Amino acid sequence: MSNALSRAIERYGAFRDEWYALPVLVAVSLVVLAAMPFLRQLALFGVAPLGWISLNMLIVTLVWATTAQAWNIMSGYTGQFSFGHAAFFGLGAYATILLTSTFAISPWIGMLIGSTLAGMYGLLIGALTFRYELEGHYFALATLAFAELLRYVFTNVPQLGGASGFFRPLAREYADGPGLAAFQFTGDLPYYYLILGFLTVVTVVSLAINRSQLGYYLFAIREREQAAAAIGVPTYQYKLLAVAVSAFFTAWPGAFWAMYFNTIRPTTVFELLVNVEILLPAIVGGIGTVLGPIVGALIVIPVGEFVRQSFSIPGLNNAVYGVILIAIVLYSPKGVVSWPSRFVELLRSRTDLLDDDGA
Amino acid sequence: MLSSFLPDACCREAAAGAPGAADPLGGLAALAGTVDATAAQAVLGISLPSPTIFAQYFVFAVLLGGIYGLVALGLTMIFGVMDVINFAHGALMVVAMYTVLVFSNATGLSPFFAIPFAVVLLFVLGVLIYRSTIAPIIDAPQENQLIVTFGVLLILISGVEMAFGSDPRQLGLELGSLNISGVFVPQGQLYALVIALVALTATWLFLQRTMLGRAIRGTADNRDGAQYVGIDVPRIDALTFGIGAALAGLAGGVIPLFQSFTPALGDQYLINAFVVVVLGGLGSFPGAFVGGLIIGFIQVFGSAYLDGSSYQILIFLAFILVLLVKPEGLLGGSADE
User: Membrane-spanning regions, if any (chain B) (predicted)?
Assistant: First the structure.
């Protein structure tokens, strides 16, 4: 092995062990994301290598990155596997568009109300399921049931839009016109930076939890709840807190979805598949890590969108998601973000062996 | 032609379409209209129905409940033995529906010949899925198996969608209905119910009376113990998953007898099958049919007296209540009870 390479790997390994490694990596990835709209237009010798990535694709990617980041706080950190986060996503979307189109209330207030409602719904789900000690399959099915319940409530109550849902009103109907205050813009670029802002907020919250005592309590609950309770962690309260925070932030991308895509129906926000799209990036990137949801979304969503747009075969992108899901769970359950460390470990053990031989 | 007016188990189309475009109540009312026009008026005006109408709903509820029981059978078996929630169950049903369609179109034979073919095909598919995706992670945390079976769901449904499109298909059978003193019994659903009961009895006999069945029950009771007494647990798991998939194949195979179908129909049946399985008790066979009947009654009477698909709200409330208060189900127990 070349000396330069092994030294570089050694240096990267040392960097990964530093306390500031994670914040630096997070900051770097957010900066790269901020530069993406320009990077994708960058041409080398007349060819733009990232030219196939559209702005719309990037926006969708960041929406699911944000949901996965929020999901991760509850399911990744605390180990309570939620299969019903579509409930929170949908509440955020519905509260925003319903209040705006019916009462001409600012979408920002709608989003705040929606995320508060989502947090309260999360507390209700948590209080019931944790009180009755549902675990594993039963917990996953219960969360799914709470999401499906909302889907049929919204489908069947005409005041909540019924099966046909809501259309986003024009900006001038409730504000001075398009702009940040109206949560509506004329081009796609402002939407991109808005959802990047949401992702940044959720990521910073996730990082802060990860590094705080709260985070250690949550990890302890995930690893062995009884042991955590035995050393004095109030597990019930902390699990509730994790659900509420997670639900609150899952509603944000939901609100964004409603304002970006013009229309909301029960099937678009509460469907079975939405529950999976929310957690997919976290699974692929790495459950319980801060970078995982971002990295996972950047891999999964563009690949799926690329397949969907370039082959124009409906359903093909879902098949690709299925293959990625199975491959990750079977061969790398710790996700893509574990690959560099695994690589470093592998090479380190190699070089150690070589050194031993030399001695 | 009556069979096309049955309380459609899939209300996704109703939910997706414009309000009122295709609501299950309309279907029921149309059916009731052919039975007794004045009684249909009474139903629409929400007053006490005539005994005939009531008997009609009762028959529908029992038929639908039997089908839900059949749908839940394979799901509950896989859970009881290997502790895996098979999210691909509905997708396997969809594969069977389209297998029946293709087989009967290609051979020109009655769909009743196509159903056994679909069952065998699904058994093989189930064993393949188990060997390639479940077996390597059978000891991993439960979420991993959930995610993997969901991946299988996505691949299967996308495959069917790519091959056949997402427009509704039907067999074009004209099975007609029996008329028992004013109460109609649609024959397609009647056959489905008979097949469901035969499948239940056959599976139960297999589990109770054969060595292989005993080995499966032993594995369900205690996996480690089964290993110690010389049972090849991975093989039993493969067999169980195969049988579970074959039962999904049977359930999917009978659905074209009375209903048009789309690739999305699988999700709808899957979610209600979860409810059925939990109501009856994960792993319990009789429980699957009791749960199926409960859901059948809620759905038929709910769609008669409530708007649109509101009955699904009742179904999920019942589901959540049972999950919280009695998660082992109303008839909780393992596959041998």
Answer: 54-75, 87-106, 112-134, 146-164, 184-207, 238-258, 270-298, 305-325
Residue B182 belongs to domain with CATH number? 1.10.3470
Domain count of chain B?
Answer: 1
The answer to whether the Cβ–Cβ distance between A315 and B161 falls below 8 Å is: yes
* Alpha helix (H) residue ranges in B2-44: 12-16, 24-35, 37-44
Structural domain for B223, as ranges: 56-325
Residue B45 lies in a domain: no
B146-195 confidence digits (pLDDT tens): 999 999 999 999 999 999 988 998 887 777 777 777 788 888 889 889 99
For the stretch B214-234, pLDDT in tens is 999 999 888 889 989 989 999
A30 and B CB contact within 8 Å: no
Please give the domain boundaries of chain A with CATH numbers for all domains: 3-358 (1.10.3470)
Q: What is the ipTM of this complex?
A: 0.88
Picking from A152, A319, A324, the nearest residue to B313 by CB comes out as: A152
Instruction: Give me the residue from A81, A265, A326 closest to B143, CB to CB.
Output: A81
Q: Spell out, as residue ranges, where chain A has pLDDT lower than 70.
A: 1-2, 351-359
DSSP string, B219-252: HHH-HHHHHHTT--HHHHHHHHHHHHHHHHHHHH
Structure tokens at B214: 């005993």
Contacts of A350 (CB under 8 A, 6+ apart): A1
